[in-house]
Structure formats: C-alpha cells, structure tokens
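Could someone model adenosine-5'-triphosphate with this protein?
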Amino acid sequence: MILPGKTIGILGGGQLGRMLAIAARRMGYRVATFDPTCDCPAGQVADLEINAPYDDLDAARRFAQRADIVTFEFENVPAETLAAIEKLRPVQPSPFVLQTTRNRLLEKRFLQQHGFPVADFQEVRSLSDLGAAVAALGVPCVLKTAAFGYDGKGQVRIDSPDNLDAIWRQWCGESAAPVGVVERFIRFEREISLIVALTASGQLRCFDVFENEHRRHILDTTIVPADIPPELAGKATELAAGIARRIGLVGLLCVEMFVEADGSLIVNELAPRPHNSGHVTVDAAVTSQFEQHLRAVCGLPLGETALFKPAAMANLLGDLWQHKEPDWSAALADPRVKLHLYGKHQARPGRKMGHLTAVADSTREARQIVVEARRRLIEA
Ligand code: ATP
Ligand code: MG
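Reply:
Sure, complex below.
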C-alpha cells in the first residue's frame, strides 16, 4: 500500500496529469511529473517537475527515484523508458496493459480473442492491403493509425472503393512503414463510456454510464447518467468490468462503446487512465475519477462512485481563443457553472484547453447550462 505522504510519479504532464496531481495533493501525497515541456499543466501543480524527452533514460531513472510508485496519463512513452522505470519502482497500470491499449491492433486483437464485441477490422500495411480491407468490410469504413492516435488524428473515413491510392498516399504522409487498421463504420445510435476501477486485491467499482457527443472526432459534451435503459447500462457495466478483469487492470480503465439501434454494444477503444468523459465526476460524484485512479494504484479501498445529481461537461477547445481571450465572467455569470482550465500557454484549434461542468435536476438541464455558458464565452 502506498500511503499519503509518499510520492506519486506521473508520466506525462497534460491535463489528466494535472487533475490527478490535484487529487493526489488533496489526499496528502507528493507529486513528481515527467514531461518534455517546462511548466506543463501537471508540472504547474506538482512538487517536482522533470523535463526531458521521453526517451531520455537517465532522466527517467532520476524521475523514478523520486517517486514511490509510477503511473501515467500519457500512453505513448517508449517501451525502453518504461522498462528502465519498472526496474526501480512499481508501475501501475502494468506495462502490459499500457502496451496492449496504446496500439489499436493489439487492443482489438486482445478484445476479439477474449470474446468482447468490436467492429470488424483488418490490419493494413500497404495500398493493396487497403484495397482488400475495403473490399472485405465494405463502405463506409474508417482507416486509423495503429499507434499514436488521439482526438481522431490519423483517421479517414472511406466512402467509396475508388481513389484509394490518393487516400493511402495522403494518410501515409511521410511515414515509410505505416501500420493501420480499417474498421467497419458503425451507424451508432449513441456513444457511451464506462470508467471502471480495479485494485490488486480485486475490488472493482464502476461509475454511472457517460454519454458522449463528438464533433470533428473530438469529444464535445458528456452527460451522466446516459439516457439509456437500466438493463443496457447494466450490460455495458458488465462488459467493462469483464475487460478490466481480463486485462489484469490495477488502476482505472475507460471503455468507449458504440450503442447500435438494436441495443447491441460495440467496444470502440480502451484507455487505462482517467478519461475526458469522466471529468464531470470531479464536481458530480462522491469520488472523482482521479481520486479513484490513485486509490486503485496505491492499493487503498475504492471510493463511492455515486453521483450527487445528473451532470454535464462541455469541452473548451483552442478555437474559442481565435479572436481574443474568452469572456470567463460571462460564462460564470450563471452561478451553477464550474470552470476548469488546464494552464496551457498556447491555444490552438482543436486543442483541449479546459472544460465547464454543471449539475442539475436532469442531464438535459445540466447540458443546457454548460453549452449556453460556453456560447457566452465568445458572444461579446
Ligand atoms: P480519442 O483518443 O480522443 O478517443 P481517437 O483518435 O482514439 O480518439 P476514436 O475513439 O477511434 O479516436 O474515434 C473518435 C471518434 O470518431 C469516435 O468517438 C466516433 O465518434 C468516431 N468513430 C471512430 N471510429 C468509428 C467507427 N468505426 N464508426 C463510426 N464512428 C467512428
Ligand atoms: Mg476514442
């Protein structure tokens, strides 16, 4: 058990690390972060910030030595770095969980092998593979990079079997040996996510089901609880718990799913860490996803996941900064709105800069509160 007073090492210094660090400090832990960029979102609230490229093994060892346990908020840390850290300190979730979930092909194969539902897919490494995959899966389908994808980056929807060579050339870009996955396009009724925590001693707890709306492949709003029948919520929860157990999770796992019109569930992807859709738990649940992640990796008993009230979250992307600084006081004029900003120095279109949350008597009302507050940010 890693008790308060000890130091949590966080690999990656983005907003997930920042909110994890805040939760850790609230519980009396010390925090060390590792990120290439100085004054990163997590570094701003940590006790110690180590800045070095992720492949700097000496820096990684220095970081590990300052921590009692190491966890991550960023999946794409090189395997050698992880191995060097693991020699010195426990890493949770385990490098196996990390390596499986950060590669779309390994992740899908893992899910398929264990009987969890995924969209039909094929591996592609060449234009001729792409042709064969599109012929086998039909259109529409989606071509995705196997590694390093986030917020829809590295994805193209394919609507016709013609002109695949142009699509392939553009998708490859500079990459000489690209590995991709083509998957069937799912005409989902809605998208949901499940966030489940599992401890080394086998205690498991899951939050209510989150319902997510994406815009341009980036999460736009979340409501919780999802607007689905209780039986379906139960089925989704069982599915997420089954995956967490099967993969040998210690920590937090987010399972993104598509819900089809007939109520079938398809697993889209996994993330072994706090997730954007769970941000709303900070203001709306007894235990936040960040505290839950810490409790799980530190071997403490898990916290209650119940919501105080229905809630909603709206992401704030860099686009809102296009003309001038957003009007924070206009958004906060509604006293029910909570503002979360990540301390990023540069606002770029599509970059996640912060989010708004609200709780209310219904998810509909909560969603309306945050969406209207977001609109007021750029109105004047
Ligand atoms: P993130 O890490 O932010 O979740 P990502 O780059 O890993 O993003 P995905 O989750 O694979 O991307 O896809 C982003 C969004 O694109 C999905 O949430 C969904 O809205 C849409 N999408 C992806 N794959 C499919 C599919 N096969 N059928 C229909 N829609 C899809
Ligand atoms: Mg996703």
